[in-house]
TrEMBL record:
Record's keyword terms, sorted: Heme, Iron, Metal-binding, Transport
Pfam family, one: Bac_globin
InterPro entries documented for this protein: Globin-like_sf, Globin/Proto, Globin_bac-like_CS, Hemoglobin_trunc
Protein name: Hemoglobin
Cofactor(s) of this protein: heme
Record organism: Franzmannia pantelleriensis
């Protein structure tokens, strides 16, 4: 068992920023969820806001210094009618990015646990 925080194992602020960039790109390439993400390309300000919220969310949730000021998961996903296939596609994208970045198995497992713990707040609200 490691005493290094999840935030540190994700690479701190820089590591999380790289992960977020690659996760959003993976979502844009994934046919199951890309329709939800591609419109952000037409609004660079919104895209950066989205990435900023994701960076802060990951930082705050992993023991980092950022404070997440975005909507909670219920509010953020209300009315989106996210289905199981989309949820699983997002999880797969996240795990794929973690693998490509060489994130160790324990850290990947912790991230999977965090994402899975949010499932009921994201699906069909």
């Amino acid at each position: 068992m490691t005493t290094t925080s999840l935030y540190q194992r994700l690479g701190g602020e820089q590591g999380i920023a790289l992960l977020v960039d690659d996760i959003v790109e993976a979502h844009m390439q994934n046919p199951t969820v890309q329709a939800r993400y591609l419109p952000a390309l037409d609004d660079p300000e919104h895209l950066e806001e989205l990435k900023g919220h994701l960076r802060d969310f990951l930082s705050a949730g992993s023991g980092g210094p950022a404070e997440y000021r975005g909507k909670n998961m219920l509010e953020a996903h209300r009315g989106m009618n996210v289905g199981e296939a989309e949820y699983m596609a997002v999880m797969d994208d996240i795990l794929g990015v973690l693998d490509r970045h060489g994130v160790d198995p324990q850290t990947r497992q912790e991230m999977l646990g965090i994402v899975y713990s949010l499932k009921e707040e994201i699906l069909h609200v």
